[in-house]
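Protocol step 4 of 5: obtain the predicted structure for the target chain.
Materials: sequence only (see below). No template structures provided, no constraints applied. The aim of this step is simply to have a reference model before the mutagenesis design in step 5. Sequence pasted as it appears in the construct record:
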Amino acid sequence: MLWRLFIAERGVMPKRTFLSQAPPFAVESAIQQLGGNLRTARLRRGLTIAEVAQKIGAGVRAVSDAEHGKATTAVSVYVALLWLYGLLPALEEVASPLKDEEGLRLTALREPRRARGSRERLDNDF
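Step 4 output (structure tokens):
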């Protein structure tokens, strides 16, 4: 309540971005699916939201928001939940440079097609 009074008094409101207000459908769907998966992982382990929040050092609201796939939830909450459930190794594969097919193709296009020789003449003087 005091925070709202402070905001009203100062006229300062948190900045809202387009991404948080209306994320692209694919982004919103992926976040919601991740949130649902995290909820399933918590339920399978028989943990309450309060227990999970305490273990990762976050608030109950942050964990609940993550499980509902809220786009404004900090990525650290999602990563901490993955860590808690033992699912963090799967995150290492996300955006792996070795699996970035488009990036690899673009890099291949920029590579020279043939090797150019040195303009200096080689001699046998060792």
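Step 4 remarks: Confidence is low (pLDDT under 50) at residues 1-8. The CA atoms of residues 1 and 56 lie 25 Å apart.
Proceed to step 5.
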